[in-house]
Design brief:
Blueprint: E1 8-9, E2 12-16, E3 21-25, E4 30-34, E5 39-44, E6 48-54, E7 60-63, H1 84-97, E8 105-111, H2 124-138, E9 142-148, E10 154-158
Parallel strand pairs: 1-4, 3-5, 8-9
Antiparallel strand pairs: 2-3, 4-7, 5-10, 6-7, 6-8
Length: 165
């Protein structure tokens, strides 16, 4: 795997009074993996978040990526967690490093909305949604739930231990 140049672990921790839980907020290009009973939160427009967990151990995490893939002017891969190809690899590897078993991994995916109706020609949200579904299928990770594309933004609250979103 290519070294990621802006590997960003989310660091915006807080206590969420609504859910009575420790929480971390993920921004674009960030991810977080945990084995603790806590909440992972993000807000999505055309970006996508993949929530992946080991359904036996409860080890899991979430990422937040902006575009499916990044290439420079010469077509070379840009290793950045802002791009789905890198963000998904980071998330998967970090979950496995914590002790999750690949055979137990399941996913829930969200985002890909066309929230800026003037951007209808690029279909960034649709491209992100298509990418994440194809990536998970290629890696044989079952999607348990999805809320992708459409016109609305989303706020995601993910509890990796239980899998609740």
């Amino acid at each position: 795997m290519t070294e990621i140049i802006d590997d960003q672990v989310a660091t915006n921790f807080y206590f969420d009074k609504n859910f009575n839980s420790q929480a971390v907020k993920l921004l674009p290009g960030e991810y977080y993996v945990t084995d603790k009973d806590m909440l992972l939160v993000t807000v999505l427009g055309s970006c996508v978040a993949a929530c992946i967990r080991d359904c036996q151990s409860g080890i899991g995490g979430m990422n937040h990526f902006m575009l499916p893939a990044g290439k420079d002017d010469h077509g070379a891969q840009l290793p950045s967690a802002r791009f789905g190809d890198s963000a998904m690899e980071i998330l998967l590897q970090e979950i496995l490093k914590r002790g999750a078993r690949r055979a137990n991994l399941v996913a829930k995916v969200f985002g890909g909305g066309n929230v800026q109706r003037t951007m209808v020609t690029t279909h960034i949200g649709f491209q992100n949604a298509k990418f994440v579904k194809e990536y998970l299928a290629r890696h044989q990770i079952r999607i348990l739930a999805a809320d992708l594309v459409g016109f609305n933004p989303r706020k995601i609250h993910f509890f990796p231990r239980s899998g609740k979103v």
